[in-house]
Amino acid sequence: MDHKAFLDSRRDFLTKISLGASVVVPLITGCTQCDSTVSQNKNTTGLKPVDPVQKREFGLIDEQDSVAQALHYHHEKTQVSEDLQKMKNGKTFSEQFCHNCQFFVPIDEHVEKPVGRCLLLQAGNVKTQGWCASWVPKR
Ligand code: SF4
Known about the structure:
Layout lengths: L2 H27 L4 H7 L11 H7 L7 H5 L33 E3 L8 E4 L7 E2 L12
């Protein structure tokens, strides 16, 4: 590789890194300018905007949600069909709950709450005593 090719290659590499950083850094820092950008966009529809974060904070997922149905999610384990009640990773079905699943995120670690977030179900919260077919033991 001659010197000019080396410099071009180096410039190309540095440009890609700076472009990547301009995308990744706002994602990591929570995009501090996003709120001001969003608030500048006026809602001209007359409809009340839906806040998906707020919905997740307070709403329990509908068992009829398409993803919840696909994962056979139920708020009450008594609703799970018997053919799905299998041993997984050395845990019997009676030991499997959302609260001890790898995908479960407590809403507030300091307060015991009957619901939490599931990384797989984005449309609402799950019950700590709930269950779905994607259950994996928390590590
Ligand atoms: S993935 Fe885990 S936390 Fe999410 S619904 Fe299924 S069992 Fe509950």
